[in-house]
Automatic annotation (TrEMBL):
GO terms for biological process: adiponectin-activated signaling pathway. This is Adiponectin receptor 2. Pfam families: HlyIII. The lineage of its organism: Eukaryota, Metazoa, Chordata, Craniata, Vertebrata. It comes from Terrapene triunguis (Three-toed box turtle). The gene is LOC112123595. Keywords: Membrane, Metal-binding, Transmembrane, Transmembrane helix, Zinc. Belongs to the ADIPOR family.
């Protein structure tokens, strides 16, 4: 027998008083349509009949008009909910106690939610703004006639690789944080894109630095480029596992990306030994490289440890939680790295294409 509103268990809702418990996505519904239909169950009573064959369809006479109307109501009236009532696939950080979006099986509702305050607002906007910034900047770098390239085609490819990695990373990130509350399937799909984007940013950041730092040593330059690309492909492959996105693998995720970034220690030591600390710091812009690494490592550490919300549960639900800080540090690190490799490009431009046997730069 179908359950009507009067038979639904009562739970404390986000507004005053009690409301019928909002069942989450089930194997029968798949997309979480039960979650948005609970108010209509109360309004329609016994007329709200679920398909007894369990296919997730509704009574024939109500299917078209009722779902359309309920979607309109849902998109305009949804409220943030506490962590405790989230379905398992939406639970990620149990130190963020309030302000979560409920499952919203409507892409339009998900995208409209970027203008509402909730736990993902900061995550969305930090990388949406960063994406637009690097997109515009990348177009300027790629097509500006004022860039003094020694090898225009090669250097545009090198900078293009960095900007492609940065824009894809930031684009995948803000899209994931926007739509991951749509359904479990959509959440899994976009989380894999998000993690792939992080890898693309790391690999794309290596390319211009290796190109300019080993400009006069093409053999080690090629070896390091191949190694970092292989490691990047490996990281993307690992990140496609469904388990990789679960809260239990938070430290593993941070470790994979941190390990990929730290693989740059080998070419960095090679460069320092070949050029000497003084020349590496001045001409090689090593200070900017170390600052970039510090920002990435700090962001990954805060993300893995869930600081500061670990020490202030419920106080960082909307602003200043670890994931937002991580996002800001990622954008800052990418900007710092761009400045550093731009200085390397200017140094190479001042020398022209000439190389000596005593330098790798």
């Amino acid at each position: 027998m179908p359950m009507i509103a009067s038979e639904l268990p009562l739970v404390a809702g986000p507004s005053k008083g009690l409301c019928p418990a909002m069942p989450g996505p089930t194997p029968e519904t798949g997309e979480g349509i039960e979650w948005q239909g609970w108010r209509w169950a109360k309004r329609l009573g016994p007329r709200w009949q679920h398909d007894p064959q369990g296919r997730g369809s509704w009574a024939p006479g109500l299917l078209g008009s009722l779902l359309a109307l309920s979607m309109q109501v849902w998109e305009g009236r949804w409220r943030v909910i506490p962590y405790d009532v989230l379905p398992d696939w939406l639970k990620d950080n149990d130190f963020l106690l309030h302000g979560h979006r409920p499952p919203m099986p409507s892409f339009r509702a998900c995208f409209r939610s970027i203008f509402r305050l909730h736990t993902e607002t900061g995550n969305i906007w930090t990388h949406l703004i960063g994406f637009l910034f690097f997109l515009v900047l990348g177009i300027g770098y790629m097509f500006s006639p004022n860039m003094n390239y020694v090898a225009p085609i090669q250097e545009r490819v090198v900078f293009g690789t960095f900007f492609l990695g940065a824009t894809l990373c930031l684009c995948f990130s803000w899209l994931f944080h926007t739509v991951y509350c749509h359904s479990e399937r959509v959440s899994r799909t976009f989380s894999k894109l998000d993690y792939s984007g992080i890898t693309l940013l790391i690999v794309g950041s290596f390319v211009p630095w290796l190109y300019y730092s080993f400009y006069c040593s093409p053999q080690p330059q090629l070896i390091y480029l191949v190694i970092v690309c292989v490691l990047g492909i490996t990281a993307i492959t690992v990140s496609q596992s469904d388990h990789f996105a679960t809260p239990q693998y938070r430290a593993v995720r941070a470790g994979v990306f941190l390990g990929l970034g730290l693989s740059g220690l080998v070419p960095t030591l090679h460069f320092l030994l070949a050029e000497g600390p003084g020349r590496a710091a001045s001409a090689g812009q090593m200070g900017w490289l170390f600052l970039m690494a510090l920002l990435y490592i700090l962001g990954a550490a805060l993300y893995a440890a869930r600081v500061p919300e670990r020490f202030f549960p419920g106080k960082c639900d909307i602003w200043f939680n670890s994931h937002q800080i991580f996002h800001v540090l990622v954008v800052a690190a990418a900007g710092v790295h761009l400045h550093g490799v731009s200085q390397l490009q200017a140094f190479r431009s001042s020398l022209g294409g000439a190389c000596t046997e005593s330098t790798v730069l």
